[in-house]
Prior knowledge:
The protein has five helices and six strands.
Amino acid sequence: MKKDSRKTQRRHKQGCAVIDSSLKLDSRVAVIRLDLSYQDGKGSADRLNSDLNKLRLNARSKSSIFKDQIGYVIKLEKGNNDNYHVHALFLFRGHEVKNHKYKAEQIGRYWQEIITKGDGLYHNCNTKEYDKNCLGAIERNDEDATNALKKNVAGYLCKDKQSIKNSNGSDKKIREFRCSVIKK
Length: 184
């Protein structure tokens, strides 16, 4: 197996730090995982970057959805057929967010209906098919769940594959990997 690149190692360390920081802020964390994308032909690297910036900026003012968020890790990717998409991990105060599947649906619908004005798609990973990835409520003292979250989810989000390049060839930087600021 190929050794992870320094970039992947750095990203993984940052992602794990966000998880650790969130668990220090609240003894129970609601872990939400979404894949965000576009309908065929509706997305580009630049649009994805712009829409993701809107999502992050709007999160500050959209308290009905993001009020109890304490962290996030986001990876932008380009898949087959120029399919631009995002893998996102959102961390919320678990004592406030009781229904993680519903919270994932709220964020997904917000992406689809408001941010992308109907052009967006989302996949709610907080379903039974992803149970092994420790999504949903995680207790601070549950080391097995925390380690599985770091290995399976943060590890997946931090991978090097499917790198994004600007669609118009500009030098404008598109940040492929984004994390919340570690709160102390």
